[in-house]
Amino acid sequence: MRSDQLLHYRPLVVLLGPTAVGKSRIAIQVARHFDTDVLAADSRQVYRGMDIGTDKPSVEERQGVPHRLIDLVAPSETFNAGWYRRVAMVEIERLYRAGRLPFVVGGTGLYIRTLVRGLCPAPQADPYVRANLKKLRDDRGRDGLYAELRRVDQETAARLHPNDESKVLRALEVYRLSGRPLSTMQAEHKFHETPFSALLIGLERKKEILYRRIEERIDWQLAHGMVEETQLLLGQGFGRELGSMKGLGYRQVGAYLAKEYDYAEMVRRFKRDTRRFAKRQMTWFRSESGVTWLSIEDHEPDQRTAERVIAHIEQFMRARGQQKQPAALQQVLLRKGFV
Description:
It contains 14 helices and six strands. It starts with a helix and ends with a helix. The longest helix is centred in the middle third of the chain and has 26 residues, at 127-152. The chain has two domains: 3-120 and 191-206 and 285-335, 3-Layer(aba) Sandwich (Rossmann fold), CATH 3.40.50; 127-189, Histone, subunit A (Orthogonal Bundle), CATH 1.10.20. α11 (250-257) runs antiparallel to α12 (263-287). It is 54% helix and 9% strand. The radius of gyration is 21 Å and the shape is globular. The protein is an alpha/beta fold and 339 residues long.
């Protein structure tokens, strides 16, 4: 029997939401209550040495709560949703064996969807096709690459930003390898492979409050070494052409260090692009089914929000404690007194 089948109907809790909504601090309190780990679902925090720019919680901020699925690869290495699912499954299996509740926290929608609903069976990456696509990019620029995606897969193009080069390349690669749009494959798959009984909790704030928090966080990042961290990465040979270095913050600071624009313009672009990113995150999450949304009021204490999240999780666990469950799930439920 496959590991996916062995995990069927086991509980999984996901805390999701846009950047700067406050997931990290709330997650630590929730994880401590359930005596479990935080399993990150963040496509940028997987990179080692990229700490300030990815808003990775420090060792002190983690307050003794283990954080997994961060610092997995060097900035020069490739990482994608398929690899994330594989390493996440290992961590989830470990938690089940220990009778602990798997608790996933993050803002990378594709990672969460792939973990909870399965992986679309698209063809694997092909170095030859990828090299040809990169030549197309070099010849026609990023806009030309995006125009090609719009020509062959308008639906996928509509949900991607032209600057999201890695995803644009991947969608074009899938089309050239299979002759079919990625959006068509995803529509057929429908992400209905559900190895877990999952509770998805989304955190949201009013737009103006979220945008203010984004700008305040960027000011903090810049005041606490964002520029120096980017300089260090560049000095270590991690060039601006890498996908990791095209992430929010590193892309804008890298251009500033290359004297493409001044500091004030860098800050303006950093904040603008992060606001746009948060908007795209919410659009993605709003399209996900089964998310329980909790709206956080301005100045609401983290402890209060954590208590609300905990209440939803406990209700979810009590409902499963009343049903016949696999032995490993019984360990989780017994450990927290739900059966």
